[in-house]
Amino acid sequence: QVQLQQSGPGLVKPSQTLSLTCAISGDSVSSNSAAWNWIRQSPSRGLEWLGRTYYRSKWYYEYAVSVKSRITINPDTSKNQFSLQLSSVSPEDTAVYYCTRGVGGTYSTLTFDLWGRGTLVTVSS
Amino acid sequence: QSVLTQPPSVSGAPGQRVTISCTGSSSNIGAGYDVHWYQQLPGTAPKLLIYGNNNRPSGVPDRFSVSKSGTSASLAITGLQAEDESDYYCQSYDSSLSGWVFGGGTKLTVL
């Protein structure tokens, strides 16, 4: 059974960097058929896709325009996990952050079929 | 505000049929990108409910179905049951944003 286990702090100070990790069991971060995503959810912004990484003979990275200048998603093959770093956070970044698996061969058919349990991250001093 | 527009709430009595709409634009649904639907129970992560042309993950009953036309899509639930009370979200790809987008969510209340 494939599972995603999230970890990371629930409180981050403004202007600092938010860091979360998602450990994968039952699948591989280097899978040739999956992509590994971060999605957040807040009352003000709803569900928002942040970015993804995936391996197809080499590593690829795609980020949402809204956070492109501040986000980094990195795979860690030695630990079979991937991480999210979001820099220069503000209270607007307060949300529940989910790591997800994306499957489907095209942009159109891609669905998020597996989700972590979510981490509430509050940005506050 | 979300790129895809859904009604904030819908309701129906047990056994009835309800529909939830999802309206987009020419850069997402209208461009021909598939629409997928998720169900989210309180305090839990969204769960993939139905994807593409009426494809359901294992365990999802065929009471759930979808349709799409132009820049809109709809989720229909027939034979409404108390366990269907949940939040529902649509999702598609947006070529202008170069990313995946969601609807604002619809809360279904079973009366």
Write the layout of secondary structure elements.
The complex is a heterodimer of chains A (125) and B (111).
Chain A: E1 3-7, E2 11-12, E3 18-25, E4 34-42, E5 46-55, E6 59-63, E7 71-76, E8 81-86, E9 95-103, E10 111-115, E11 119-123
Parallel strand pairs in A: 2-11
Antiparallel strand pairs in A: 1-3, 3-8, 4-5, 4-9, 5-6, 7-8, 9-10, 9-11
Chain B: E1 9-12, E2 18-23, E3 36-40, E4 47-51, E5 64-69, E6 72-77, E7 86-94, E8 99-102, E9 106-110
Written overview of the protein:
The complex is a heterodimer of chains A (125) and B (111). Chain A has strands spanning 3-7, 11-12, 18-25, 34-42, 46-55, 59-63, 71-76, 81-86, 95-103, 111-115, 119-123. Chain A has no helices and 11 strands. In chain A, strands 2, 4, 5, 6, 9, 10 and 11 form a 7-stranded mixed sheet that branches. A 4-stranded antiparallel sheet of chain A has the order 1-3-8-7, with no helix packed on it. Chain A is mostly beta strands and 125 residues long. Chain A starts with a strand and ends with a strand. By secondary structure, chain B is mainly β. Helix content of chain B is 0%, strand content 45%. In chain B, strands 1, 3, 4, 7, 8 and 9 form a 6-stranded mixed sheet that branches. In chain B, a hairpin with a 4-residue loop joins β7 and β8. Chain B is globular and about 40 Å long. The mean pLDDT of chain B is 97. The chains are: A mainly beta (125), B mainly beta (111). The interface between A and B is medium-sized, with 20 and 27 residues.
Tag the structure with descriptive keywords.
heterodimer, A: 125 residues, mainly beta, seven-stranded mixed beta sheet, 0% helix, B: 111 residues, 9 strands
SS elements, strand count of chain A: 11
Biggest interface between chains: A-B, 20 and 27 residues
Distance between the termini of chain A: 39 Å
Give the oligomeric state of the chains in this entry, treating copies of one chain as homo and distinct chains as hetero.
Answer: heterodimer
What's the overall geometry of chain B? Answer: globular
What percent of residues of chain A are in strands?
Answer: over 45%
Protein structure class of chain B: mainly beta
Mean pLDDT of chain A: 97
Q: From N to C, what is the helix and strand string of chain A?
A: EEEEEEEEEEE
Order of helices and strands of chain B: EEEEEEEEE
Q: Rg of chain A from C-alpha positions?
A: 14 Å
Provide the low-confidence segments of chain A as ranges.
Answer: none
The share of residues in helices of chain A is under 10%
Mean of all residue-level pLDDT scores of chain B: 97
**Number of discrete helical segments of chain B:** 0
